[in-house]
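Good day; I would like, with your permission, to put a structural problem before you. A protein sequence and the structure tokens that stand for its backbone fold form the material at issue. Thank you for your consideration; the sequence and its tokens are set out here:
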Amino acid sequence: MYGRALLFGEQAEPQRAMSVLLDARRQGVDIGSPGHVSFCERHLAGACLALGHHRAAIDWVRSAVAQATQPPRTSSSRMVSHPRSHAAS
């Protein structure tokens, strides 16, 4: 993930990582993927720590834990059955 690389790479760019991770988090929310959202929020916490925003880091960690315990959102419009699941036996 690019945001993670910006955060932990040799030339760390925590402010830029925040922007990329916030964008990725929004995408995770849009597709209903709590695991993706939690992943982004954990790294947002790291970016906040790197920038000295300790309270914000704690808030992101709390949110990440809450997201990690949520089941994925499913939508019938997104569900696609595998062709073999309907094959006659």
Q: What stands out?
A: The CA atoms of residues 79 and 85 lie 13 Å apart.
